[in-house]
Protein backbone atom coordinates (compact mmCIF):
# COMPACT_ATOMS: atom_id res chain seq x y z
CA UNK A 1 0.00 0.00 0.00
CA UNK A 2 1.57 3.27 -1.06
CA UNK A 3 2.39 5.73 1.69
CA UNK A 4 1.39 9.31 1.01
CA UNK A 5 4.16 11.78 1.57
CA UNK A 6 3.35 14.46 4.17
CA UNK A 7 4.82 17.03 1.80
CA UNK A 8 2.22 16.26 -0.86
CA UNK A 9 -1.11 17.78 -0.01
CA UNK A 10 -4.21 16.79 -1.82
CA UNK A 11 -6.42 19.55 -3.11
CA UNK A 12 -9.49 19.88 -0.93
CA UNK A 13 -12.68 18.64 -2.58
CA UNK A 14 -14.74 21.63 -3.62
CA UNK A 15 -18.47 21.71 -3.24
CA UNK A 16 -20.52 21.87 -6.37
CA UNK A 17 -22.62 24.87 -7.28
CA UNK A 18 -25.85 23.36 -5.94
CA UNK A 19 -24.35 22.61 -2.50
CA UNK A 20 -22.83 26.07 -2.24
CA UNK A 21 -26.17 27.61 -3.17
CA UNK A 22 -28.04 25.59 -0.52
CA UNK A 23 -25.48 26.35 2.22
CA UNK A 24 -25.49 29.99 1.24
CA UNK A 25 -29.26 30.19 1.59
CA UNK A 26 -29.08 28.51 5.02
CA UNK A 27 -26.28 30.81 6.15
CA UNK A 28 -28.38 33.81 5.15
CA UNK A 29 -31.17 32.47 7.37
CA UNK A 30 -28.92 31.82 10.46
CA UNK A 31 -29.26 35.34 12.01
CA UNK A 32 -33.04 35.16 11.73
CA UNK A 33 -33.07 31.66 13.26
CA UNK A 34 -30.83 32.74 16.18
CA UNK A 35 -33.00 35.79 16.81
CA UNK A 36 -36.11 33.64 16.77
CA UNK A 37 -34.48 31.10 19.18
CA UNK A 38 -33.43 33.92 21.54
CA UNK A 39 -36.94 35.34 21.63
CA UNK A 40 -38.58 31.93 21.80
CA UNK A 41 -36.50 30.46 24.63
CA UNK A 42 -36.50 33.72 26.59
CA UNK A 43 -40.30 33.78 26.78
CA UNK A 44 -42.48 31.81 29.24
CA UNK A 45 -43.77 28.43 28.13
CA UNK A 46 -43.09 24.72 28.15
CA UNK A 47 -39.80 23.49 26.79
CA UNK A 48 -41.39 20.88 24.55
CA UNK A 49 -43.63 23.44 22.88
CA UNK A 50 -40.69 25.73 22.33
CA UNK A 51 -38.66 22.86 20.83
CA UNK A 52 -41.47 21.95 18.44
CA UNK A 53 -41.82 25.57 17.33
CA UNK A 54 -38.08 25.92 16.83
CA UNK A 55 -37.92 22.64 14.88
CA UNK A 56 -40.80 23.80 12.67
CA UNK A 57 -38.95 27.02 11.93
CA UNK A 58 -35.78 25.10 11.08
CA UNK A 59 -37.70 22.72 8.80
CA UNK A 60 -39.51 25.55 7.05
CA UNK A 61 -36.20 27.39 6.59
CA UNK A 62 -34.56 24.30 5.09
CA UNK A 63 -37.53 23.71 2.77
CA UNK A 64 -37.44 27.31 1.56
CA UNK A 65 -33.67 27.09 1.01
CA UNK A 66 -34.12 23.84 -0.96
CA UNK A 67 -36.86 25.45 -3.07
CA UNK A 68 -34.59 28.44 -3.71
CA UNK A 69 -31.82 26.06 -4.75
CA UNK A 70 -34.16 24.23 -7.14
CA UNK A 71 -35.45 27.44 -8.70
CA UNK A 72 -31.88 28.72 -9.19
CA UNK A 73 -30.55 25.43 -10.59
CA UNK A 74 -33.40 24.67 -13.05
CA UNK A 75 -32.61 27.46 -15.59
CA UNK A 76 -28.91 26.63 -15.37
CA UNK A 77 -29.63 23.00 -16.24
CA UNK A 78 -31.89 24.18 -19.04
CA UNK A 79 -29.07 26.29 -20.48
CA UNK A 80 -26.66 23.36 -20.10
CA UNK A 81 -29.05 21.15 -22.09
CA UNK A 82 -29.38 23.80 -24.80
CA UNK A 83 -25.60 24.22 -25.07
CA UNK A 84 -25.13 20.44 -25.16
CA UNK A 85 -27.61 20.24 -28.04
CA UNK A 86 -25.64 22.94 -29.90
CA UNK A 87 -22.43 21.02 -29.31
CA UNK A 88 -24.03 17.86 -30.71
CA UNK A 89 -25.29 19.74 -33.76
CA UNK A 90 -28.98 19.77 -32.80
CA UNK A 91 -30.21 23.30 -33.45
CA UNK A 92 -33.91 22.56 -33.06
CA UNK A 93 -34.15 22.92 -29.24
CA UNK A 94 -35.27 26.27 -27.81
CA UNK A 95 -35.48 27.56 -24.27
CA UNK A 96 -38.95 28.68 -23.08
CA UNK A 97 -40.17 31.32 -20.64
CA UNK A 98 -37.44 33.69 -21.73
CA UNK A 99 -38.01 37.40 -21.37
CA UNK A 100 -36.09 40.63 -21.37
CA UNK A 101 -35.12 42.53 -18.21
CA UNK A 102 -34.34 39.18 -16.62
CA UNK A 103 -30.77 37.93 -16.28
CA UNK A 104 -31.53 34.26 -16.95
CA UNK A 105 -34.15 35.12 -19.58
CA UNK A 106 -31.71 37.25 -21.56
CA UNK A 107 -29.12 34.45 -21.51
CA UNK A 108 -31.71 31.97 -22.85
CA UNK A 109 -32.76 34.48 -25.55
CA UNK A 110 -29.16 34.79 -26.67
CA UNK A 111 -28.76 31.00 -26.73
CA UNK A 112 -31.94 30.70 -28.81
CA UNK A 113 -30.64 33.35 -31.20
CA UNK A 114 -27.28 31.58 -31.46
CA UNK A 115 -29.06 28.29 -32.17
CA UNK A 116 -31.09 29.90 -34.97
CA UNK A 117 -27.99 31.53 -36.45
CA UNK A 118 -26.03 28.26 -36.39
CA UNK A 119 -28.97 26.43 -37.95
CA UNK A 120 -29.17 28.92 -40.82
CA UNK A 121 -25.41 28.80 -41.35
CA UNK A 122 -25.40 24.99 -41.38
CA UNK A 123 -28.24 24.94 -43.91
CA UNK A 124 -26.34 27.40 -46.11
CA UNK A 125 -23.16 25.32 -45.87
CA UNK A 126 -25.06 22.12 -46.65
CA UNK A 127 -26.75 23.71 -49.65
CA UNK A 128 -23.45 25.04 -50.97
CA UNK A 129 -21.77 21.69 -50.35
CA UNK A 130 -24.55 19.89 -52.21
CA UNK A 131 -24.27 22.35 -55.11
CA UNK A 132 -20.48 21.98 -55.18
CA UNK A 133 -20.78 18.18 -55.14
CA UNK A 134 -23.21 18.28 -58.07
CA UNK A 135 -21.00 20.68 -60.02
CA UNK A 136 -17.91 18.51 -59.47
CA UNK A 137 -19.89 15.41 -60.43
CA UNK A 138 -21.12 17.08 -63.63
CA UNK A 139 -17.65 18.28 -64.68
CA UNK A 140 -16.01 16.56 -67.62
CA UNK A 141 -12.71 17.21 -65.83
CA UNK A 142 -11.08 14.72 -63.48
CA UNK A 143 -10.86 16.01 -59.89
CA UNK A 144 -8.91 13.98 -57.32
CA UNK A 145 -7.97 14.75 -53.70
CA UNK A 146 -5.07 13.11 -51.84
CA UNK A 147 -4.12 13.30 -48.18
CA UNK A 148 -0.69 14.31 -46.89
CA UNK A 149 0.59 10.72 -47.36
CA UNK A 150 -0.51 10.66 -51.00
CA UNK A 151 -3.56 8.38 -50.61
CA UNK A 152 -6.70 9.04 -52.64
CA UNK A 153 -9.61 10.46 -50.63
CA UNK A 154 -11.93 11.88 -53.29
CA UNK A 155 -12.60 11.34 -57.00
CA UNK A 156 -15.46 12.62 -59.17
CA UNK A 157 -17.13 10.52 -61.91
CA UNK A 158 -14.78 11.92 -64.57
CA UNK A 159 -11.81 10.74 -62.51
CA UNK A 160 -13.44 7.32 -62.14
CA UNK A 161 -13.78 7.09 -65.93
CA UNK A 162 -10.18 8.22 -66.38
CA UNK A 163 -8.81 5.64 -63.94
CA UNK A 164 -11.18 2.92 -65.15
CA UNK A 165 -12.65 1.97 -61.75
CA UNK A 166 -15.33 3.17 -59.29
CA UNK A 167 -14.29 5.19 -56.28
CA UNK A 168 -14.97 2.35 -53.86
CA UNK A 169 -12.11 0.47 -55.51
CA UNK A 170 -9.86 3.51 -55.81
CA UNK A 171 -10.37 4.89 -52.30
CA UNK A 172 -7.18 4.72 -50.23
CA UNK A 173 -4.89 3.83 -53.12
CA UNK A 174 -1.64 5.76 -53.38
CA UNK A 175 -0.89 8.30 -56.09
CA UNK A 176 2.10 6.22 -57.17
CA UNK A 177 -0.10 3.17 -57.72
CA UNK A 178 -2.48 5.29 -59.82
CA UNK A 179 0.37 6.69 -61.95
CA UNK A 180 -0.06 10.23 -60.57
CA UNK A 181 2.78 10.43 -58.07
CA UNK A 182 4.97 12.86 -60.02
CA UNK A 183 2.03 15.26 -60.52
CA UNK A 184 1.60 15.78 -56.76
CA UNK A 185 4.83 17.80 -56.70
CA UNK A 186 3.87 20.19 -59.51
CA UNK A 187 4.22 23.89 -58.86
CA UNK A 188 2.85 25.27 -62.12
CA UNK A 189 0.21 23.93 -64.55
CA UNK A 190 1.70 21.33 -66.87
CA UNK A 191 0.68 19.77 -70.18
CA UNK A 192 1.68 16.14 -70.40
CA UNK A 193 1.01 13.10 -72.55
CA UNK A 194 0.08 9.98 -70.60
CA UNK A 195 -1.98 6.81 -70.89
CA UNK A 196 -4.60 5.79 -68.34
CA UNK A 197 -7.02 2.86 -68.20
CA UNK A 198 -9.75 5.23 -69.34
CA UNK A 199 -7.85 6.77 -72.26
CA UNK A 200 -4.64 8.35 -73.45
CA UNK A 201 -3.72 11.73 -74.88
CA UNK A 202 -2.60 15.18 -73.82
CA UNK A 203 -3.62 16.37 -70.37
CA UNK A 204 -3.41 19.72 -68.60
CA UNK A 205 -2.66 19.13 -64.92
CA UNK A 206 -3.14 21.67 -62.14
CA UNK A 207 -2.30 21.05 -58.48
CA UNK A 208 -3.59 22.97 -55.48
CA UNK A 209 -3.35 22.54 -51.71
CA UNK A 210 -6.14 22.70 -49.15
CA UNK A 211 -6.79 21.66 -45.55
CA UNK A 212 -9.46 19.40 -44.13
CA UNK A 213 -9.79 18.93 -40.38
CA UNK A 214 -6.53 20.87 -40.05
CA UNK A 215 -4.56 18.38 -42.16
CA UNK A 216 -3.00 19.27 -45.55
CA UNK A 217 -4.37 17.71 -48.75
CA UNK A 218 -3.49 17.94 -52.44
CA UNK A 219 -6.02 18.54 -55.20
CA UNK A 220 -5.34 17.43 -58.78
CA UNK A 221 -7.43 18.76 -61.68
CA UNK A 222 -6.78 16.89 -64.93
CA UNK A 223 -8.23 18.24 -68.19
CA UNK A 224 -8.30 16.23 -71.40
CA UNK A 225 -6.95 18.50 -74.12
CA UNK A 226 -6.99 15.93 -76.91
CA UNK A 227 -10.73 16.12 -77.54
CA UNK A 228 -10.75 19.92 -77.53
CA UNK A 229 -7.68 20.10 -79.76
CA UNK A 230 -9.16 17.59 -82.20
CA UNK A 231 -12.40 19.57 -82.39
CA UNK A 232 -10.55 22.84 -82.91
CA UNK A 233 -8.33 21.19 -85.50
CA UNK A 234 -11.38 19.84 -87.31
CA UNK A 235 -13.04 23.27 -87.36
CA UNK A 236 -9.81 24.90 -88.54
CA UNK A 237 -9.47 22.40 -91.37
CA UNK A 238 -13.09 22.93 -92.35
CA UNK A 239 -12.61 26.70 -92.55
CA UNK A 240 -9.30 26.35 -94.41
CA UNK A 241 -10.62 23.79 -96.87
CA UNK A 242 -13.68 25.94 -97.51
CA UNK A 243 -11.47 28.89 -98.45
CA UNK A 244 -9.03 26.72 -100.40
CA UNK A 245 -11.89 25.08 -102.26
CA UNK A 246 -13.29 28.48 -103.17
CA UNK A 247 -9.92 29.66 -104.47
CA UNK A 248 -9.26 26.48 -106.43
CA UNK A 249 -12.74 26.45 -107.97
CA UNK A 250 -12.27 30.05 -109.09
CA UNK A 251 -9.26 28.91 -111.14
CA UNK A 252 -10.29 25.39 -112.15
CA UNK A 253 -13.75 26.36 -113.39
CA UNK A 254 -12.50 28.62 -116.25
CA UNK A 255 -9.68 26.16 -117.02
CA UNK A 256 -12.19 23.33 -117.36
CA UNK A 257 -14.49 25.51 -119.47
CA UNK A 258 -11.67 26.64 -121.77
CA UNK A 259 -10.41 23.06 -122.13
CA UNK A 260 -13.89 21.92 -123.20
CA UNK A 261 -14.08 24.82 -125.66
CA UNK A 262 -10.69 23.89 -127.15
CA UNK A 263 -11.70 20.24 -127.45
CA UNK A 264 -14.89 21.21 -129.27
CA UNK A 265 -13.07 23.71 -131.49
CA UNK A 266 -10.34 21.26 -132.56
CA UNK A 267 -12.80 18.41 -133.15
CA UNK A 268 -14.73 20.37 -135.79
CA UNK A 269 -14.16 19.32 -139.46
CA UNK A 270 -13.11 21.44 -141.18
CA UNK A 271 -11.55 23.84 -138.69
CA UNK A 272 -13.08 27.29 -138.48
CA UNK A 273 -11.17 30.09 -140.11
CA UNK A 274 -10.63 31.93 -136.78
CA UNK A 275 -9.80 28.78 -134.76
CA UNK A 276 -6.28 30.00 -134.09
CA UNK A 277 -7.57 33.21 -132.52
CA UNK A 278 -10.12 31.33 -130.40
CA UNK A 279 -7.54 28.73 -129.36
CA UNK A 280 -5.05 31.44 -128.41
CA UNK A 281 -7.64 33.25 -126.32
CA UNK A 282 -8.59 30.02 -124.52
CA UNK A 283 -4.97 29.11 -123.89
CA UNK A 284 -4.38 32.63 -122.56
CA UNK A 285 -7.21 32.20 -120.02
CA UNK A 286 -5.80 28.81 -119.02
CA UNK A 287 -2.35 30.32 -118.60
CA UNK A 288 -3.64 33.22 -116.50
CA UNK A 289 -5.51 30.92 -114.16
CA UNK A 290 -2.56 28.56 -113.90
CA UNK A 291 -0.33 31.51 -113.00
CA UNK A 292 -2.88 32.61 -110.39
CA UNK A 293 -2.80 29.11 -108.90
CA UNK A 294 1.00 29.25 -108.84
CA UNK A 295 0.91 32.57 -106.99
CA UNK A 296 -1.65 31.14 -104.59
CA UNK A 297 0.59 28.15 -103.80
CA UNK A 298 3.60 30.48 -103.36
CA UNK A 299 1.65 32.55 -100.84
CA UNK A 300 0.60 29.38 -99.02
CA UNK A 301 4.21 28.19 -98.86
CA UNK A 302 5.43 31.56 -97.58
CA UNK A 303 2.73 31.56 -94.89
CA UNK A 304 3.44 27.97 -93.78
CA UNK A 305 7.22 28.55 -93.58
CA UNK A 306 7.34 31.68 -91.44
CA UNK A 307 10.69 31.39 -89.60
CA UNK A 308 10.89 31.91 -85.83
CA UNK A 309 11.68 35.51 -84.80
CA UNK A 310 15.28 36.60 -84.17
CA UNK A 311 14.97 39.32 -81.50
CA UNK A 312 17.28 42.29 -81.28
CA UNK A 313 16.88 45.69 -79.64
CA UNK A 314 15.76 48.56 -81.84
CA UNK A 315 14.01 51.92 -81.50
CA UNK A 316 10.35 51.40 -82.28
CA UNK A 317 9.64 55.05 -83.19
CA UNK A 318 12.08 54.90 -86.11
CA UNK A 319 10.52 51.70 -87.43
CA UNK A 320 6.98 53.16 -87.12
CA UNK A 321 7.91 56.31 -89.06
CA UNK A 322 9.67 54.25 -91.74
CA UNK A 323 6.66 51.96 -92.21
CA UNK A 324 4.31 54.97 -92.45
CA UNK A 325 6.46 56.57 -95.17
CA UNK A 326 6.38 53.38 -97.24
CA UNK A 327 2.66 53.85 -97.92
CA UNK A 328 2.35 56.23 -100.89
CA UNK A 329 -1.33 55.98 -101.76
CA UNK A 330 -2.48 57.92 -98.70
CA UNK A 331 -0.59 59.96 -96.09
CA UNK A 332 -0.41 58.09 -92.79
CA UNK A 333 -0.60 60.37 -89.74
CA UNK A 334 1.94 59.25 -87.13
CA UNK A 335 0.97 60.19 -83.58
CA UNK A 336 4.26 60.09 -81.69
CA UNK A 337 4.32 57.90 -78.61
CA UNK A 338 7.04 57.12 -76.06
CA UNK A 339 10.56 56.85 -77.44
CA UNK A 340 11.38 53.30 -76.33
CA UNK A 341 13.43 50.34 -77.49
CA UNK A 342 11.98 46.85 -77.70
CA UNK A 343 13.55 43.44 -78.25
CA UNK A 344 11.93 41.80 -81.27
CA UNK A 345 12.52 40.74 -84.86
CA UNK A 346 12.35 44.12 -86.55
CA UNK A 347 11.88 42.63 -90.04
CA UNK A 348 8.86 40.60 -88.98
CA UNK A 349 7.34 43.47 -86.97
CA UNK A 350 7.81 45.74 -89.96
CA UNK A 351 6.11 43.22 -92.26
CA UNK A 352 3.18 42.88 -89.88
CA UNK A 353 2.70 46.67 -89.68
CA UNK A 354 2.97 46.98 -93.47
CA UNK A 355 0.19 44.42 -93.90
CA UNK A 356 -2.04 46.18 -91.36
CA UNK A 357 -1.39 49.63 -92.85
CA UNK A 358 -2.16 48.29 -96.32
CA UNK A 359 -5.54 47.00 -95.12
CA UNK A 360 -6.25 50.30 -93.33
CA UNK A 361 -5.41 52.37 -96.42
CA UNK A 362 -7.55 50.09 -98.63
CA UNK A 363 -10.51 50.63 -96.30
CA UNK A 364 -9.97 54.40 -95.98
CA UNK A 365 -9.55 55.01 -99.73
CA UNK A 366 -13.01 53.54 -100.35
CA UNK A 367 -14.51 56.07 -97.92
CA UNK A 368 -12.19 59.05 -98.50
CA UNK A 369 -10.88 58.81 -94.94
CA UNK A 370 -7.50 58.90 -93.24
CA UNK A 371 -5.20 56.51 -91.39
CA UNK A 372 -3.46 57.07 -88.05
CA UNK A 373 -0.58 55.14 -86.51
CA UNK A 374 0.01 55.54 -82.78
CA UNK A 375 1.58 53.65 -79.90
CA UNK A 376 1.70 53.81 -76.10
CA UNK A 377 2.88 51.83 -73.09
CA UNK A 378 0.26 49.65 -71.39
CA UNK A 379 1.88 48.25 -68.26
CA UNK A 380 4.67 45.99 -69.46
CA UNK A 381 3.24 45.93 -73.00
CA UNK A 382 3.61 48.15 -76.04
CA UNK A 383 0.21 48.85 -77.59
CA UNK A 384 0.31 49.75 -81.29
CA UNK A 385 -2.89 50.99 -82.94
CA UNK A 386 -3.61 51.50 -86.63
CA UNK A 387 -6.85 53.44 -87.01
CA UNK A 388 -8.67 53.78 -90.33
CA UNK A 389 -11.79 55.65 -91.44
CA UNK A 390 -13.30 52.90 -93.55
CA UNK A 391 -16.65 51.15 -93.28
CA UNK A 392 -15.65 49.00 -90.30
CA UNK A 393 -15.27 45.26 -89.88
CA UNK A 394 -17.35 43.02 -92.14
CA UNK A 395 -19.78 40.63 -90.40
CA UNK A 396 -17.62 37.56 -90.78
CA UNK A 397 -15.93 35.09 -88.44
CA UNK A 398 -13.33 34.18 -91.06
CA UNK A 399 -11.16 37.30 -90.88
CA UNK A 400 -8.23 35.31 -89.51
CA UNK A 401 -8.80 32.25 -91.70
CA UNK A 402 -5.90 31.86 -94.18
CA UNK A 403 -6.72 33.00 -97.73
CA UNK A 404 -10.11 34.39 -96.78
CA UNK A 405 -10.56 37.89 -98.17
CA UNK A 406 -13.37 40.36 -98.77
CA UNK A 407 -11.35 42.46 -101.25
CA UNK A 408 -11.18 41.77 -104.99
CA UNK A 409 -7.73 40.44 -105.77
CA UNK A 410 -6.81 40.13 -102.07
CA UNK A 411 -4.46 37.37 -100.95
CA UNK A 412 -6.17 36.60 -97.64
CA UNK A 413 -2.93 36.13 -95.69
CA UNK A 414 -2.09 39.67 -94.53
CA UNK A 415 -4.10 39.57 -91.29
CA UNK A 416 -3.20 35.96 -90.59
CA UNK A 417 0.50 36.63 -91.10
CA UNK A 418 0.37 39.75 -88.89
CA UNK A 419 -1.31 37.83 -86.07
CA UNK A 420 1.11 34.93 -86.44
CA UNK A 421 4.04 37.35 -86.13
CA UNK A 422 2.53 39.06 -83.06
CA UNK A 423 1.85 35.76 -81.30
CA UNK A 424 5.33 34.45 -82.15
CA UNK A 425 6.66 37.44 -80.18
CA UNK A 426 4.40 36.68 -77.20
CA UNK A 427 1.90 39.35 -78.17
CA UNK A 428 -1.52 39.55 -79.78
CA UNK A 429 -3.50 41.18 -82.59
CA UNK A 430 -7.13 42.25 -82.24
CA UNK A 431 -9.56 44.05 -84.55
CA UNK A 432 -12.49 46.14 -83.37
CA UNK A 433 -14.76 48.83 -84.75
CA UNK A 434 -14.18 52.41 -83.67
CA UNK A 435 -16.52 53.82 -81.04
CA UNK A 436 -16.07 57.49 -82.00
CA UNK A 437 -16.61 57.20 -85.77
CA UNK A 438 -16.83 54.82 -88.70
CA UNK A 439 -13.78 52.67 -89.17
CA UNK A 440 -11.68 49.98 -87.56
CA UNK A 441 -8.79 49.78 -85.06
CA UNK A 442 -6.11 47.13 -85.47
CA UNK A 443 -4.37 46.77 -82.10
CA UNK A 444 -1.02 44.95 -81.74
CA UNK A 445 0.31 44.29 -78.25
CA UNK A 446 3.95 43.31 -77.82
CA UNK A 447 6.11 42.74 -74.74
CA UNK A 448 7.92 45.99 -73.98
Automatic annotation (TrEMBL):
Main location group: membrane
Domain PAS: residue ranges: 128-174
SMART domains registered for this protein in UniProt: HAMP, HATPase_c
Span of domain Histidine kinase: 243-448
Known EC number: 2.7.13.3
Superkingdom of the source species: Bacteria
UniProt cross-references to InterPro entries, sorted A to Z: HAMP_dom (IPR003660), HATPase_C_sf (IPR036890), HATPase_dom (IPR003594), His_kinase_dom (IPR005467), PAS (IPR000014), PAS-like_dom_sf (IPR035965), Sig_transdc_His_kin-like_C (IPR004358)
Sequence ranges assigned to domain HAMP in this UniProt record: 70-123
Catalysed reactions listed for this entry: ATP + protein L-histidine = ADP + protein N-phospho-L-histidine
A molecular function GO annotation: protein histidine kinase activity
GO biological process: signal transduction
GO cellular component: membrane
Keywords: Kinase, Membrane, Phosphoprotein, Transferase, Transmembrane, Transmembrane helix
Ranges annotated as spanning the membrane: 21-41
Compartment annotation: Membrane
PANTHER family associated with the record: HISTIDINE KINASE, SENSOR HISTIDINE KINASE
Protein name from the UniProt record: histidine kinase
Taxonomic source organism: Dokdonella immobilis
Taxonomic lineage: Bacteria, Pseudomonadati, Pseudomonadota, Gammaproteobacteria, Lysobacterales
Amino acid sequence: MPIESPLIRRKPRRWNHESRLLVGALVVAIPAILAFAFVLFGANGSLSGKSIAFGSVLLATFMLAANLRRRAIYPLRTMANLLEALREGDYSLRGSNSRRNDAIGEVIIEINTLSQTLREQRLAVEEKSALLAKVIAALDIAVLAFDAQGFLKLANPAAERLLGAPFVELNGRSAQALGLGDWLSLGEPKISERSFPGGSGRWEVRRASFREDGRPHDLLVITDLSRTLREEERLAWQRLLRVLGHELNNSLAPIRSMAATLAKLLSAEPLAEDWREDAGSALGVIGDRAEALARFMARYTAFARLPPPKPRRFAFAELARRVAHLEQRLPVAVEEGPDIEISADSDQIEQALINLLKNAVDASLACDGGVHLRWALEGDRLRIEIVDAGSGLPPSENLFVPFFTTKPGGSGIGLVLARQIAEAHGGSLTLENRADAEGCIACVRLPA
